[in-house]
Amino acid sequence: xxxxxKYNEGVKAKKDEFGKxxxxxxEINEAGPFYVIRLxxxxxxxxxxxxxxxxxxxxxxxxxxxxxxxxxxxxxTGGTHGAxxxxxxxxxxxxxxxxxxxxxxx
Length: 106
Fold this sequence. Notes:
Elements: H1 2-12, E1 50-51, E2 57-59, E3 66-71, E4 77-78, H2 90-105
Parallel strand pairs: 1-4
Antiparallel strand pairs: 2-3
């Protein structure tokens, strides 16, 4: 809670200890709940790979239909960003489509 309080004070003062731009600052609800996961971002991302749908199902390159029982997420997939992509968003693909694939498999 102390860390969140300190961060919120920085937001109000429009100054972040890590040098974030003012437009990127927003207060965090001090009441929570809070969830923590360990992230290890890497400075790379593939621009090609398996095509998937919104359910993380791998699509056939011939029919563009889901291949039964085959899901993919993260670096193995391609096309979620179109012809280009923003830096540092690879981990978002991994987490979001990993969760979706897990829900579909379960």
